[in-house]
TrEMBL record:
It is found in: Cytoplasm, Cytoskeleton. Its main location: cytoplasm. Keywords: ATP-binding, Coiled coil, Cytoplasm, Cytoskeleton, Microtubule, Motor protein, Nucleotide-binding. This is Carboxy-terminal kinesin 2-like isoform X2. ATP binds at residues 435-442. Residues 201-249, 278-305 form a coiled coil.
Length: 686
């Protein structure tokens, strides 16, 4: 901007300043009063003019005080410059904000610019030559009396030129004032601009705030979206995994489906085959059902036939029993079987042959036996070689059956088994063995000490038959209750051989009048359901039996033993019943010679039993009114088995030893006596 323009601008600014009084920002520190704009009159020094800084000369206020500038100059300049000024207003404002040659942003002209500006002002207001400048503008012109130019082109006033110097200072002050005005105007404009900017800024701030809020909202939304995104991503991953899993499953299922399809095809084929098979089976089943119906019809017919057959069997059984009994009757109710035992190994160990010379068994006749007395044991010299009658050298005996030493236990049992059957049919059956000690009674009745199937005796075999027959008879409606007792007659007193503790108890024999049955008090009666149980009882009895050594036999017994087995049968079909009690005693005849003291007493008692038995049998045979049953314990015990209501079998056991000839003869004579007895007809016990 040139000097004129600046002056006009200053004037305009001064007028503006007057109309809008504004506090100056360029007030000297500590002044407190405002600097009046040009045209408003200068104030006295100290009322608003900034004092000169140190080194500067103090201004001479008195010269310009109250003197206004030349109005004419100022006005003309102002008029000519208004248009330009107005047109350049924007440029001015721009230049005021940042004039060329000024330091940017400070608002102050650079030193060089200030200097130039001052020179220009002096040029514009230069007075005519020879005339001192009037007013402030005039005073700015360099006076003629200026000294040599100051460095930089400005001539320095002479020290005495106070006025000139004052004028210079005034010019400077004016320039500064103008500048101040311009600056204040600029300041006002800038403040306006600042205000505008502040408004804009506020608007921008509000906008920014709104935008921030929007941003925040957007951020929140973004966060939410991000969260949603993450969630969706997670869901996506999950879905992806599920999809993969489903895909795997689908693959597996596809494979399963393939397999199942294959299996289904197989099953379909199988099903078809099964269906066909089933249809075939149905057809077969229908055929079978028809057959079953036919078979049922046939079965019904057969059952009727069987029932008729069973009825026939029962009738036949009754006939058989009747016939069997008739046979037994024909054979006699007392039957005698003779058995000669073999020589024992130790009995012929002296080099003798094993033949028995004094006993003959006529060939072809199993009922006869001959006893021959040999002289010194020589078979060729018999004392009774021709005699076959009583009193002769040879004694012939006839029994129901004679068994040789070679006869087996089974052969003997076959002979007595029919009698055992009679016990099942309800008859009292008494089987007893009679003979001298060591003649084989125990062997025949029970078997050896350690029996096997071939050597087992008559009692176990009879028991076996009883149980087997009883089982077979179950089909015909028979049920049997079986019980057993085993007793011993020793020195005319009874002992229970089944007593486990071996305690002696008193036993009395009673005859029950109701059924004429013999009962022994305090005797153990054991119910038996099988053969094994009976064998156990036999062993127990064997242990309890009194065994005493005699000179006749190393295992001689000094007693009679009686085994009783009671069979009570009931037929549920025919309402029949039976009650058989077969006692199987072993009766001993003892040789009295050689026995003494207690042994002699035992022998006498045993033989007394046997002689009483003979008397009883004779009485029965003679049909005596009195039968001496009660003369011995043995006959009393066998009372029911020796009467007309029972079937009796007597074994007469014979020792093969020739030295026992006399005892053998006595036994055979007694047996013959028994065999000749007719003790009446046995009646079935019902
Ligand atoms: N038929 C037989 N076969 C083989 N050995 C027999 C036969 N009979 C008896 N014995 C044997 O003869 C011996 C005497 O027999 P057992 O003991 O049976 O006579 P016992 O008459 O009972 O004598 P006791 O009256 O003294 O008791 C025994 O060793 C026995 O094994």
């Amino acid at each position: 901007m040139n000097t004129e323009n600046r002056v006009l601008t200053d004037a305009t600014a001064s007028s503006q300043q007057r109309s809008i009084p504004r506090p100056s920002r360029l007030r000297p520190p500590g002044s407190g009063s405002r600097i009046k704009p040009p045209g408003s009159g200068m104030r006295p020094p100290g009322t608003g003019i900034k004092p000169p800084s140190a080194g500067e000369r103090p201004p001479i206020y008195g010269l310009v005080k109250g003197k206004p500038q030349s109005a004419g100059i100022k006005r003309s300049v102002s008029t000519s410059c208004l248009a330009e000024n107005r047109s350049n207003d924007s440029h001015k404002r721009q230049r005021v904000g940042s004039p060329p040659g000024t330091k940017h942003g400070t608002g102050r002209p650079a030193p060089q610019t200030r200097h130039t500006s001052m020179k220009a002002t002096v040029r514009a207001t230069a007075p005519t030559a020879g005339k001192p400048p009037s007013g402030r503008l005039a005073s700015t012109a360099p006076p003629a009396n200026m000294g040599p130019s100051a460095p930089g082109g400005k001539s320095k006033r002479a020290a005495w030129d106070l006025k000139g110097r004052l004028l210079d200072m005034e010019a400077v002050l004016n320039a500064n004032t103008s500048r101040l005005v311009v600056l204040e105007s600029t300041n006002i404009q800038l403040e306006g601009t600042v205000k505008e900017k502040e408004i804009v800024s506020t608007e921008i701030s509000l906008e920014a705030e709104g935008l921030r809020k929007k941003l925040k909202k957007a951020e929140t939304e973004l966060e939410s979206i991000q969260h949603n995104y993450k969630s969706l991503q997670h869901k996506f991953h999950t879905s992806e995994e599920e999809r993969e899993s489903a895909q795997a499953q689908a693959t597996s299922l596809r494979s399963s489906v393939t397999q199942l399809t294959a299996a289904q095809a197989g099953i379909s084929v199988e099903l078809q085959a099964t269906k066909m098979g089933f249809e075939q089976k149905v057809s077969e089943s229908q055929k079978l059902q028809a057959e079953i119906a036919e078979l049922r019809k046939l079965l019904a017919e057969r059952e009727a036939t069987v029932r008729a057959g069973e009825q026939k069997i029962r009738e036949d059984e009754a006939v058989r029993r009747a016939l069997h009994n008739t046979i037994q009757e024909l054979k006699g109710n007392i039957r005698v079987i003779c058995r000669v035992r073999p020589l024992l190994p130790f009995e012929n160990s002296n080099g003798e042959d094993s033949e028995i010379h004094h006993i003959n068994f006529p060939r072809g006749d199993a009922t006869k036996l001959e006893l021959e007395k040999l002289i010194d044991g020589n078979p060729n010299e018999s004392t009774m070689s021709t005699a076959s009658t009583r009193g002769g050298g040879k004694y012939q005996f006839l029994f129901d059956k004679v068994f040789t030493p070679a006869s087996s236990q089974q052969e003997v049992f076959d002979e007595i088994s029919q009698l055992v059957q009679s016990a099942l049919d309800g008859y009292n059956v008494c089987i007893f063995a009679y003979g001298q000690t060591g003649s084989g009674k125990t062997y025949t009745m029970e078997g050896p000490d350690h029996p096997d199937d071939t050597s087992v005796g008559m009692i176990p075999r009879a028991v076996m038959q009883v149980f087997r027959s009883a089982k077979a008879l179950q089909d015909k409606g028979w049920q049997y209750d079986m019980s057993a007792s085993f007793m011993e007659i020793y020195n005319e007193s009874l002992r229970d051989l089944l007593s486990a503790d071996g305690k002696e108890q008193k036993h009395d024999i009673r005859l029950k009048k109701a059924d004429n049955d013999v009962e022994v008090s305090n005797m153990i009666v054991v119910n038996v359901a099988g053969e094994a149980e009976v064998y156990k009882l036999l062993k127990m009895a064997s242990r309890n039996r009194v065994v005493a050594a005699t000179n006749c036999n190393e295992r001689s017994s000094r007693s009679h033993s009686v085994f009783r087995m009671r069979l009570i049968g009931k037929n549920s079909l025919t309402d029949e019943s039976c009650n058989g009690v077969p006692p199987w005693p072993q009766l001993r005849r003892l040789k009295e010679s050689g026995s003494e003291g207690k042994r002699l007493e035992e022998t006498k008692n045993i033989n007394k039993s046997l002689s009483t038995l003979g008397q009883v049998i004779l009485a029965l045979a003679n049909k005596d009114t009195h039968v001496p049953y009660r003369n011995s314990k043995l006959t009393f015990l066998l009372q029911n088995s020796l009467g007309g209501n029972s079937k009796t079998l007597m074994f007469v056991n014979v020792s093969p030893k020739e030295e026992h000839f006399n005892e053998t003869l006595n036994s055979l004579r007694f047996a013959t006596k028994v065999n000749n007895c007719n003790i009446g007809t046995a009646r079935k016990k019902v």
